[in-house]
Design goal:
two-stranded antiparallel sheet, four-stranded antiparallel beta sheet, alpha+beta, 6 strands, 220 residues, 41% helix, rod-shaped
C-alpha cells in the first residue's frame, strides 16, 4: 500500500519593494484622476460662476470712478462742449474741448488702474463646495479667495451720440468708454476676462437744426 503525502505550496509573500510600487501606482492614478476632474469639471464651473462676478465688480468700479471724477471737478456739458448758432437758429458749430477731455481721460484711467490693482489684492471669494463641481454643494463650505490680476493697461476713449428728442430737438451725449483686461488666477491656470463699459459723462438737449456732418459722424 502506497501512502500519498500532499504538501501545500507556500505562498510567496510580496516584498516590501513590490508593495511600495503598487501603492505608488495607486497614488499616481488617483492624482491623475483628480487633476483630470479638476481641469475638465471644476475649473469650467468656477470660471463660469466667477465671470459675471468679475465683470460686475469691474463695471461697478469703473462707474464709481467716472462718477467721482465728474462730481469732484464739477464738470458739466457746457465745460466740454461749445455750440455756435447761426442767425437762423441753426447749429453752425459743435466744438469739444479736447484738452479738458484728455485731462479727464488721464485722471479716470489712472484711478481705474489703481482701483483694479487694489481689486487684485483683495480678490473674490468662492465657497469650497463649488470646487467639488457638484451642483447641490455650490455655496456651501468656507470661502476660498481667488486672486484677480490686472493684465496690461486700461484703455479709454470718449465717444458721442446724437438722438432725436422731438421737433427740432436733439440729445447730444458724451460717453466714456473703458476697455480693460482682468485675469483670474486659479491653481494651475489663469483665465482672462475682457470688459468694456460705456459710462455717460454728460448730455444736453440741443434746440435747432443740426447739420448732417454731426449726425452721421462722431465729434471725438
Amino acid at each position: 500500500m502506497i501512502d500519498y503525502v500532499v504538501t501545500k505550496k507556500k505562498k510567496k509573500k510580496m516584498s516590501c519593494k513590490t508593495k511600495f510600487r503598487i501603492f505608488l501606482c495607486i497614488i499616481l492614478i488617483l492624482i491623475v484622476l483628480c487633476l483630470v476632474y479638476y481641469f475638465k469639471v471644476v475649473c469650467p464651473i468656477i470660471v463660469g460662476l466667477s465671470q459675471e462676478k468679475v465683470r460686475s465688480i469691474a463695471t461697478s468700479t469703473i462707474s464709481n470712478v467716472v462718477g467721482d471724477v465728474m462730481e469732484e471737478d464739477n464738470i458739466s456739458y457746457s465745460d466740454l462742449v461749445t455750440i455756435t448758432y447761426s442767425g437762423e437758429n441753426q447749429v453752425k458749430l459743435i466744438e469739444v474741448d479736447t484738452v479738458k477731455v484728455n485731462i479727464i481721460i488721464r485722471e479716470i484711467t489712472k484711478r481705474v488702474q489703481d482701483e483694479f490693482n487694489t481689486l487684485g489684492e483683495e480678490g473674490i471669494d468662492i465657497t469650497l463646495g463649488t470646487f467639488t463641481g457638484i451642483p447641490f454643494l455650490f455655496g456651501l463650505g468656507p470661502n476660498v479667495s481667488i486672486k484677480l490680476v490686472p493684465i496690461g493697461t486700461v484703455s479709454t476713449k470718449v465717444d458721442s451720440t446724437f438722438n432725436g428728442a422731438g421737433i427740432n430737438q436733439t440729445i447730444h451725449r458724451l460717453y466714456f468708454v473703458v476697455n480693460s483686461n482682468i485675469g483670474m488666477v486659479l491653481p494651475g491656470m489663469t483665465e482672462n476676462f475682457q470688459t468694456e463699459l460705456e459710462v455717460l459723462l454728460c448730455e444736453n438737449i440741443i434746440v435747432g437744426e443740426i447739420p448732417d456732418v454731426y449726425l452721421q459722424g462722431s465729434l471725438i
